[in-house]
Design a protein that fits this description.
147 residues; alpha+beta; L,D-transpeptidase catalytic domain-like; five-stranded mixed sheet; four-stranded mixed sheet; 17% helix; 34% strand
Length: 147
Amino acid sequence: MAQLRRIIGIAGAAAAMGATAVLAPPAAGADGMPCSAQAKACIQLGTNTSWLADQGVVTYGGVPITSGKPGYRTPTGSFKVQYKDIDHYSKQFNGPMPYSVFFTTNGIAFHQGSLKQKSHGCIHLSREAAITYFNALQPGDVVEVVK
């Protein structure tokens, strides 16, 4: 946000001097987010943190997460939101997955879950964060997972 205020301040000063300002989107990594400007959601496994973003500008987060335990590690890479299910139930792991946003083709999702226990590959969020992610993300949005 500080970077955005700085850009707006520079643009305002340039306009006051009669100059035409050309603004570029913020560089990847703005506000500490380690993902590219294409990511609508960013997950950093090493810090157990996730963000929502728009063109590289953080719009929500960083929020705490838990991810996959040994044998069920959350995959790294770039993915796209596949679908959402507000009241999903995992038959495979016999448990509820409220506010699920699936971003891989093999069942990995953001959802409300324990922030103290590792998952079977999903990204656990607090209830508040899960609702926010569910409302903000749409099928086709880019999700990046980095170490």
